[in-house]
Design a protein that fits this description.
It contains 6 helices and 13 strands. With 298 residues, the protein is α+β, with helices and mostly antiparallel strands.
Length: 298
């Protein structure tokens, strides 16, 4: 007995539905997936590869370029590189060595694999989207969520679902705990580190001892600097390399651990965090003259 309310449809009546389903099936595979989307580009993102010759970081972190860059291996002990379609896995040998060294030390500490996001483009320079810095090959983003499963193939790491470690402006214990604290502390122990940017709520929690952060004191928190965003990753910035006289150093961070009254203000729930002041955009500084030769080198 038919369960349909009304007359039983004929084969002829079903043909339009079947044709629509067939059309959907034919179209679906050709629809570009998010990971296959072509990102915006500029002259610096279209260069074929690094320049030959010795490595040099040139200019400032947010206004410079990279000569003689090297590529980070996409897999190594303790880490894996992600979002490879961006072609931002290049850097000065110092940042490449930093990542590989951190991976080995994290693995020795029993931590799961951490994920490495953007480092720099093949010749550094301004990125078409995503960052103002990462131009001189001595910045790197490291995600706060680990990968505990099998190592995914490179083409399956484009846009993993990696969310914030905060919930309503405070630490989510399910996403941020002693393992993340340990990784951050290991990163600060490298003498080449200038700063590590973290979300203000993360820094505030660490200053208050979250995850055992202060059991050995608070001196290591000096390198962690609060900044908007950075709630799903931390941003490592190295000092200018010794082989790069044209690299422009950043003003050193203030002395102390940074666990002060100003941080308490930063650390309010995200809906109350102070907003950057609204000021007219300053004219973009001219890139160092040496960067034009880096961009056009064959």
């Amino acid at each position: 007995m038919s369960l349909l309310l009304g007359p039983k449809p004929t084969d002829t009546a079903l043909m339009p539905v079947a044709l629509l389903l067939l059309l959907f099936i034919l179209i679906w595979p050709s629809t570009p997936a998010r990971a296959q989307a072509v990102p915006p580009s500029n002259a610096w993102s279209r260069v074929p590869g690094p320049t030959p010759g010795p490595p040099r970081s040139i200019g400032f972190y947010a206004n410079g370029c990279l000569a003689g860059g090297v590529a980070l291996p996409v897999d190594g002990p303790g880490y894996e590189a992600i979002r490879l379609q961006r072609r931002r896995i290049f850097g000065h040998p110092d940042i490449i060595d930093f990542i590989e060294s951190l991976g080995r030390r994290a693995q020795a500490a029993g931590l799961p694999r951490f994920r490495v996001g953007d480092v720099a483009q093949a010749r550094g320079g301004p990125l078409p989207f995503g960052h103002a810095s990462h131009q001189t090959g001595i910045d790197a983003d490291i995600w706060l969520t680990f990968d505990t499963g099998p190592v995914p193939p490179p083409d399956a790491r484009d846009f993993p679902e990696l969310g914030s470690v905060l919930d309503q402006g405070t630490i989510d214990p399910a996403r941020f705990g002693p393992q993340q604290v340990r990784l951050l502390k290991l990163a600060t122990e490298d003498a080449r580190v200038e700063r590590i940017f973290v979300n203000p709520a993360i820094k505030l929690a660490l200053c208050r001892g979250y995850g055992g952060a202060t059991k050995d004191g608070t001196a290591w928190l000096h390198s962690l600097r609060p900044w908007w965003g950075h709630d799903d990753h931390f941003h490592v910035r190295l000092r200018c390399p010794a082989d790069s006289p044209q690299c422009e150093a950043q003003k050193p961070a203030e002395a102390g651990d940074g666990c002060d009254a100003d941080l308490e203000n930063w650390g309010r729930p995200s809906t109350e965090l102070p907003k950057p002041p609204i000021v007219p955009p300053a004219p973009k500084p001219k890139p160092p003259a040496a960067c034009q030769a880096v961009l056009t080198a064959r």
